[in-house]
Structures are given as structure tokens and as C-alpha cells.
Specification:
Layout lengths: L4 E7 L18 H24 L6 E4 L2 H7 L2 H24 L6 H21 L4 H11 L2 E6 L13 H19 L5 E3 L9 H7 L4 E4 L1 H5 L13 E2 L5 E4 L6 H4 L17 H4 L42 H30 L5 E7 L10 H12 L7 E2 L38 H19 L5 H17 L3 H7 L4 H24 L4 H10 L16
Parallel strand pairs: 1-2, 1-8, 1-9, 2-3, 3-4, 4-5, 5-7
Antiparallel strand pairs: 6-7
Helix pairs in contact: 1-5, 3-4, 11-12, 13-14, 13-16, 14-16, 14-17
């Protein structure tokens, strides 16, 4: 009987929002990161520790992008995060008083205890260094940390600019080695986007595999008859794993698990429900409303009149019971797929790669971490028909795999990158392309600069990489903080333009340069020559 391999890859992402106005200040933009730390990254580490202590043999893949690692490793962000937790705890204490005798008192207490434990975990258990613990689980073999690009750029839009592709990949790999000690064997392409020539770029940096959208294999020239259930290779032997198209729809699709009526309604938060006077211990001076984490309501029936309905209270015990059923359902679905694939592979081991956005593990689905725990635990039982595996361990026959020419596509909603160049964000691409072309030209003409000019060019390279981030157009497409996103994107493009003009006029404000270097404290080891043409 063949071995049925199930690969789970959790893909984290983070836009580069870094507020340094005041040491103790936090803004609407900080909340994206702080919520991720509270609901996903610390709970993930706690889960790994619990499974290790219980001697549960688990294997997962984890994509930790350089932007996220930079922010997690930033002492000022760490200080801001602790201050934010203190605000959440203060709000929780006032909520316990406000809800005395109410049916929601238990929910408020549970959330308050969660924040108090999170602060204890962050400051004492992990000593504010989450990356060190993720590295520990990598070294133990439980977690495969998979490298990715510098700033989650949508690479097909730079297909003809090989220097830009090299810069994104090289910076991402250098960051991976800086934070975790090694770059690993695999490279995770943002949005699983593929275009012709990517195999040459990845192989030139020593990468052995990547993960692509199912269309890349199913629509490929000389496609393999085993579909996504067996890895294939490009002409230069870069291995391609096709991701399961039904994950994460199983979780967050129209009929996904997270929409079950017993689960927490993550869209309904007291930060948007209560009067501002009752939120004084939490709100900033500008009184901007943000999510607080205090969510007392369960999901409602579909197609309901939200304005005129009474939301029912969230009951954690009921959610925990449902999580077990949903985890079992997920495993059964994947096991059935692998069983059907087994017949096609004629004795070879079938594999299925499931990519899960990290935000589903606690942020947009509060029970996501509990569900993951159940999945990992149930698969570890002897009677389970599937085995957890990591991509790096499925490369034994790398040079014997069938060769294909992958079809250009991506894993976004449309499948071909339309979300990154629609009516809300199409203006961005011309500025990004022009800045990238100019950066390549500067590198060629000024390849041996030192001192102040080298600092200018290094800053310019960072600003171009940040401007290339696919998060900007995607957030505009989804209407997330559109005004601030436009401001950040404009700042990165304008900063590069100032450098470009300064080099042309041979004059620059050293004060401006120093201030911006402190503000965009990312890739401190940056060498602008990563944009040079490879000889």
C-alpha cells in the first residue's frame, strides 16, 4: 500500500506598516500586526509546544516573509505591542465591570484572560523573541521554514525585468538566512504566481522546489497525467508542487467551516459597537476605531437581515465540539482525494499540498488554531490513513520526475493577476515599473559608489522593493485602509524619486537621508547592487 502524503503550508503575510511617531503610540495600521501576533503567531508557538510536550509527531510548512520577521524583531514595535496589550487588558477589566450580571460576562473574562496570558507568553515565555522559537521548531524538524520574496511582489508583472526578479528573490533568501540561519530548499512564490523564466531564477539561487497554482500543472504543455497529486519538474529540474485548489475554500469559502453558526463572529467587535466613552481606556487620541478582540457574538444564519436581528451569544464549548467535527471532515476530504489519486499513480505515493493563509488561524477565524490542533492530532493517530509530510522530504526522485512547461497563472481569485491591476489600483504599475527601470539603470552606471552615494543607492533599492509589494494594490482592491495605503505607496515612490534627482544634481540632505533610514528600518544590510545585471 502506498503512503498518502498530506502537506500543510501556513502562509503568513504582512504589509510594511511601521509607526514610529511615539514610543507608546499605536495606530489603526499597527493593529494588523498586533492582531496577528496575538491571534496567530503566539498561539501557533503555544500549539507547537503543546504538541511537542504530548509527543505528537507533526510536520508543517511555514512561510514567514522578511517584512513580518523585520517587524517582529523590531524592539520599538515590541514595546508598542506590550503597550497595546496593556490597553487591551485595561479595556477587559472595564468590560468585566460593565457586564457584571450580563450573559456576556463569561466572554469578556475569557478574552481578558487570553490577553493576560498573551502578555505573559510574549514577555516571559518567549522573551519578546518569537523568531528564535520558530527557529527552534525548524531545527527540531517539526516546521519547515520556506523562504519567499523580499516584499511579496506580484512577480509576473516584472517578468521582463530579470534584475527585479533577482533582487526580490536574493533579498528574500538573504533575509531568511539572517533570521533563521539558512535559506532552505524551497521558495514560496507570492500568490503562487508563475511566469516563464521563473525556474531559471530560482535554480540560479540553489532552490530545489516551489509551489504553484493548480492551473500551472493542469494547463501545462505536455502535462502529467497525475495532476497535482505528484510533483513534476521544469527543464532545469526545479520541482513544482501544485497546491490543492479547494484549500482554503474548505475553511473560508461560501460553505466553509468558519461560517458555522456556533463559531465566533469576528466581524462584530465592541470596538465598533460601543460608545466611545466606554472605550476610553483603549482608543487613541484621534479616537480612531479599531478591533479590540472582545467579540461576544456567534455567527448568524446566512442571508439574514443584520440590522434587525438579535445576535446570539458565542459559546466557546459549542465551538470546541464543532472544531473536532470540522477537523475530521477536512481530513476525510483530503484522504478521499489521495485515495482516488493512488489509483492513477499506480503504486507511487500520492501527495497533496494544502496552502492555508495564516490569517485564518485565529484572526478571521477565531477557532482556526483549535482546528489546526485537531487536524495535527488526529492525523498522528495510528488509524489515520494519511501522513503529514514536508515538501523538502518529497524530493528523493527529483531528477527522475516528468518534465513539463508550466502554464502562466497565479493563485489569486481570478487566477491571472487581475486583482492587482483593476480600476482601484492600475495607476500603481506604471510608477513601480519606471522606478524599477531607473534603479536598474542607476546600478549599472554607479556600480562602484561608496560613502554617502552608496547610502543613497541602498535606500533607493529598499524603497523600490517596498513599492513593488503586491500588498498595496491588493489592499486597494479589497478597500482596506485605502487612504493610508495610497499614502505609503506614494511615500516609497517619492523617496526613490528624491534619491534619483539627488544623484543627478549631486546634492542631498543628509538629515533627510538619515531620518528615512531610521523610518524604513528594513534590510539594514541592503546592497543596491542586487539590481545589477548578472554577467
Amino acid at each position: 500500500m502506498s503512503k498518502k502524503n498530506l502537506v500543510l503550508i501556513i502562509e503568513a503575510n504582512q504589509v510594511f506598516f511601521r509607526n514610529i511617531c511615539e514610543e507608546t503610540d499605536f495606530t489603526v495600521q499597527n493593529e494588523i500586526l498586533f492582531t496577528g501576533i496575538t491571534d496567530t503567531y503566539i498561539p501557533l508557538l503555544n500549539l507547537f509546544g503543546k504538541l511537542e510536550k504530548s509527543q505528537v509527531k507533526f510536520k508543517v510548512g511555514l512561510v514567514m516573509p522578511p517584512v513580518l520577521c523585520t517587524l517582529l524583531n523590531d524592539p520599538q514595535i515590541q514595546k508598542q505591542y506590550i503597550d497595546w496589550l496593556d490597553r487591551c487588558i485595561a479595556l477587559g477589566k472595564s468590560e468585566v465591570k460593565r457586564l457584571a450580571g450580563s450573559q456576556f460576562l463569561e466572554n469578556a473574562r475569557d478574552t481578558l484572560e487570553k490577553y493576560e496570558k498573551t502578555k505573559l507568553d510574549f514577555t516571559e515565555v518567549y522573551n519578546q523573541n518569537l523568531l528564535c522559537k520558530f527557529k527552534y521548531y525548524k531545527e527540531k524538524g517539526f516546521v519547515e521554514l520556506i523562504a519567499t520574496t523580499a516584499t511579496r511582489a506580484y512577480l509576473p508583472y516584472f517578468q521582463d525585468l530579470h534584475e527585479a526578479l533577482n533582487a526580490q528573490v536574493e533579498t528574500g533568501l538573504y533575509a531568511q538566512r539572517t533570521f533563521f540561519g539558512e535559506s532552505g530548499e524551497g521558495f514560496f512564490l507570492p500568490f503562487c504566481a508563475w511566469a516563464e523564466g521563473f525556474d531559471s531564477v530560482l535554480r540560479s539561487y540553489g532552490m530545489n522546489y516551489t509551489v504553484v497554482d493548480a492551473r500551472a500543472l493542469l494547463f501545462a504543455e505536455k502535462r502529467n497525467g497525475t495532476g497535482i497529486f505528484s510533483p513534476v519538474r521544469c527543464g532545469n529540474s526545479l520541482v513544482l508542487f501544485g497546491k490543492d485548489p479547494h484549500t482554503p475554500d474548505d475553511i473560508c469559502g461560501k460553505n466553509g467551516y468558519m461560517h458555522n453558526e456556533v463559531y465566533c463572529n469576528c466581524a462584530k467587535d465592541i470596538g465598533f459597537e460601543l460608545d466611545s466613552k466606554e472605550l476610553e481606556s483603549f482608543l487613541e487620541k484621534d479616537k480612531a476605531r479599531t478591533s479590540t478582540g472582545y467579540k461576544y457574538w456567534a455567527n448568524t444564519e446566512k442571508d439574514i437581515d443584520y440590522e434587525n436581528c438579535d445576535f446570539k451569544r458565542y459559546i466557546r464549548k459549542d465551538a470546541e465540539e464543532q472544531v473536532k467535527k470540522d477537523a475530521q471532515d477536512f481530513i476525510h476530504k483530503k484522504a478521499d482525494k489521495l485515495k482516488s489519486a493512488e489509483e492513477l499513480l499506480k503504486g507511487e505515493d500520492p501527495s497533496l499540498v494544502c496552502v492555508i493563509p495564516a490569517e485564518l488561524m485565529g484572526q478571521t477565524w477565531r477557532e482556526g488554531i483549535l482546528w489546526l490542533e485537531e487536524v495535527l492530532t488526529q492525523i498522528s493517530l495510528p488509524e489515520c490513513s494519511v501522513t503529514l509530510e514536508q515538501c523538502k522530504n518529497l524530493l528523493e526522485k527529483q531528477f527522475e520526475l516528468p518534465k513539463i512547461k508550466p502554464y502562466p497563472c497565479s493563485g489569486d481569485e481570478s487566477g491571472y493577476g487581475e486583482d492587482f491591476i483593476d480600476g482601484t489600483n492600475s495607476y500603481m504599475i506604471r510608477y513601480i515599473r519606471k522606478a524599477t527601470e531607473r534603479m536598474i539603470d542607476l546600478t549599472e552606471r554607479l556600480s562602484s559608489e561608496t560613502s554617502l552615494k552608496e547610502r543613497l543607492l541602498n535606500l533607493a533599492a529598499k524603497e523600490v522593493l517596498l513599492a513593488q509589494s503586491g500588498e498595496w494594490p491588493l489592499m486597494l482592491h479589497e478597500n482596506k485602509l485605502p487612504d493610508y495605503v495610497k499614502k505609503c505607496f506614494k511615500k516609497h515612490v517619492l523617496s526613490f524619486t528624491i534619491v534619483f534627482d539627488a544623484l543627478a544634481s549631486n546634492s542631498v540632505s543628509t538629515e533627510w537621508l538619515t531620518n528615512l533610514e531610521k523610518e524604513d528600518l528594513i534590510f539594514p544590510w541592503m546592497n543596491y547592487r542586487i539590481f545589477s545585471r548578472k554577467k
